[in-house]
Design a protein that fits this description.
Strand order of the largest sheet: 2-1-3-4-5
Largest sheet: 5 strands, mixed
Distance between the termini: 46 Å
Structural class: alpha/beta
Radius of gyration: 15 Å
Order of helices and strands: HEEHHEHEHEH
Low-confidence stretches: none
Shape: globular
Number of helices: 6
Length: 152
């Protein structure tokens, strides 16, 4: 059985692909039975699609792969805490386990993914683990935005 660090390295690989494409560097994978069944990289800029977040892309691919919109017995790994849109999609997909690396500081004011779970009476249990490869995942995000600010 592979551990969370092993799988988060794959999500980080996809975040680097997003960065190299000029996108906000977030990567996501979904695993089932110790195998990657889908992945996603942020693609909003390239596709002019505000919903083209890594998590949404990974969810769409996993649904097609499993031929089911409910992604039972899967785990999602993502390099950054999901935004509220992605959190809602994760809840609807019934993913039972979410592992993310770094908290999204942008949501301190409006609430995090974990806060969203507490707002509603969700009829299923999702286990959350955070902080996996936090130095590496935080660095890629901070470096991306630092370079963007320098270019301006």
């Amino acid at each position: 059985m592979k551990n969370d660090i092993y799988w988060m390295k794959y999500a980080l690989y996809f975040a680097k692909l997003a960065k190299n494409a000029g996108e906000i560097p977030v990567g996501a994978i979904i695993i089932k039975n110790n195998k990657i069944i889908s992945y996603g990289v942020n693609s909003s800029i390239k596709t002019n699609d505000p919903t083209a977040h890594a998590e949404i892309i990974a969810l769409r691919k996993a649904g097609k792969y499993l031929k089911n919109y409910r992604l039972i017995n899967t785990t999602m790994y993502v390099t950054l805490e999901p935004c509220l849109m992605c959190a809602g999609a994760i809840i609807i997909s019934r993913i039972p386990r979410l592992v993310f690396s770094t908290y999204n500081k942008k949501y301190n004011e409006i609430g995090s993914f974990i806060d969203l779970l507490g707002i509603y009476n969700i009829n299923y249990k999702i286990t959350i683990n955070s902080g996996i490869l936090i130095k590496e995942c935080t660095y890629i995000i901070k470096n991306f935005f630092s370079l963007k600010r320098k270019k301006k």
